[in-house]
Every structure is written in structure tokens, then in C-alpha cells.
Amino acid sequence: MEFLIASIILLYVLSTVFYTVYFFLQKNVLQKAGYFLLLAGFLCHCLVFILGFAEAGHMTVRNLHETLSISSWAVAGVFLLLRYKVHLKILGLYAAPLAAGVMIAASFVPSVPVETNDIYKSIWFVMHIITIFIGDAGFAMAFGIGVMYLIQEHAIKTKKHGFFYKRLPSLEMLDSTGYACIVIGFTMLTIGLVTGLIYAKMSWGRFWSWDPKEVWSGITWLLYAVLLHERLAVGWRGRRAAIMAIIGFAVLLFTFFGVNSLLEGHHGEFTVR
User: Fold this and answer.
1) How far apart are CA 39 and CA 184, in angstroms?
2) Exposed, middle or buried: residue 240 (CB in 10 Å: 0-12, 13-18, 19+)?
3) Which residue stretches of the chain have pLDDT < 50?
4) What domains does the chain contain, in order, with CATH numbers?
5) What is the pLDDT of residues 67-121, one digit of tens each?
6) According to the model, what pLDDT value does residue 92 have?
7) What is the DSSP track for the chain?
8) Whether the predicted model's global pTM rises above the 0.85 cut
9) 162-197 burial string, b = 16+ CB within 10 Å, else e?
10) Cα(130)–Cα(107) distance, rounded to whole angstroms?
């Protein structure tokens, strides 16, 4: 297992190197190499989860090490899906180092043994975890695209058609891809919250307990719901949508890390130690 984890990190790091060099040299063969390296790392990552499930008898997401690992896996997976659908090649420059960085961070966090609990074997728990992390990865991609949009918009407004302007996609493509990421993230987050409510009822006897993690997850959901509503009803696009995607991801990061660190709740008992 340690060999596989080391292989994943190596493949993600090599992918980062190739995407970085591609950004400077703009040679298509470089981004293709980065793509296939990331794909290989993702497949190894899938194998780690399969072996972990076979060994433990349940989904392995019981501590911070495993939580970070699945976060990295989700980022790589969502990027590969986007790369297949919209061919936004330059997004690899953001996705590859993000997946690599999170995986490296996971390797430095001790995998603290956790007593096996029947809640980990619940299908609702599995669905809750997978959809939540895929949703988070979608929002992470929207954040990166939002930053790219603001950089490209600044280059256009200041008429500085230099390094970044020539390498970043059009504002229209960035805006539409960012919107697709928000839709993916929101859909998965919604499914994750619904399955989480069912899982909570089975585990603690109630759908909602005002746990800080639940409250902030609800706030995150409402924020992205407002963004989608305003885009469809009012026509929020471009700069405003990019800024909202960045703000939304900041709230998401607080929900993921800050709540467990600063506030007490039963979610911390299972996902982060």
C-alpha cells in the first residue's frame, strides 16, 4: 500500500511538472503527458481505495489522513471529467498541483488507527462521503477557474496582451466551464446533504442536530444556491460569478477545516482527528 501511495504522489508531481512546462512552452505533447500522468495517478488512487475497502470491510475515511487522500482523489477525478468534456487543457496547471499538494499533505499526517464502527459500513455513509467530496472538488475547480477569469479579464481591460493573455482561454470559455463546475458541485453537495440526513437519522436518531458541521454545510449550500439562482434568474455572469465562486470556496474551506478545529461537534469524531 505504501508503494502505491508513493506512486500516486510521484505521478501527480510529475503531472504538475509537465503542465507547468506546458504553460511556458505551449507544446501540446507536454500537456498530453501531464494528462496521462494524472490519469495514471488517479487509477492508482482508485486501486488504493479498493484495496483499503477490501482490507477494512468499509470505506476508509476515518481520519484526516484518509480524508485528505479522498479529497486529492476527487480533485483528480473531477478534472479528468472536465478535461474530457470541455478540453480546458490549462486547468491541469491548477488541478495537478492541487491533487499533488493535498496528497503530499496526507502523507505527512499520521494514519491514526480508528476503531471500526458499523456506521462506516452504511451505504448512506458511503454515498454521503463520495458525493460530498466530489462536490467539494467541483467547487475547487470553480475557484481555480474564477481566479483565471479575473486574471484574463484584467489583462483585457488593461490591454496588456502579454504572458497570461496568450495562455489563458477566452472569458466566455472560462465562465461557461466555471458554471459547469458549480452545477457539478452543487448537485453532488445536494445529494451528499440528503444522504447525510438519512445517515444521521440512522446513526443518531434524528435528521438534524444543529451540529456546527451541518450548519456550515447548509450555509455553503445556500451560498451556491444563491449563485445559481442569480445566474439563471438575473444573469450573474463573468466577474461577479467568478468572485462568488472564490468566496464560496473560502466558506467551503472553513467548513472543511475550520469547523473541526474551532468548533465541537460529532462530525469530528469520524472524519478528522
Assistant:
1) 20
2) middle
3) 269-273
4) 1-116 (1.20.120), 118-273 (no CATH)
5) 899 999 999 999 999 998 888 889 999 999 999 999 999 988 877 655 556 666 6
6) 94
7) -HHHHHHHHHHHHHHHHHHHHHHHH--HHHHHHHHHHHHHHHHHHHHHHHHHHHHHSS----SHHHHHHHHHHHHHHHHHHHHHHH--GGGHHHHHHHHHHHHHHHHHS--------GGGG-HHHHHHHHHHHHHHHHHHHHHHHHHHHHHHHHHHHTT--SHHHHHS--HHHHHHHHHHHHHHHHHHHHHHHHHHHHHHHHHHSSS----HHHHHHHHHHHHHHHHHHHHHHT---HHHHHHHHHHHHHHHHIIIIIHHHHS--GGGGTS--
8) yes
9) eeeeebbbebebbbbbbbbbbebbbebbebbbebbb
10) 21
- Are the CB atoms for 80 and 101 separated by under 8 Å? no
Residue 11 neighbours by CB under 8 Å, 6+ apart: 37, 38, 40, 41, 44
CB atoms within 10 A of CB 245: 27
pLDDT of residue 233: 87
Instruction: State the pLDDT at residue 112.
Output: 64
- Pairwise CA distance, residues 59 & 259, whole Å: 23
For residue 170, report the phi and psi dihedrals to the nearest 5 degrees: -65, 160
Give yes or no for a contact between 58 and 120, defined as CB atoms under 8 angstroms apart. yes
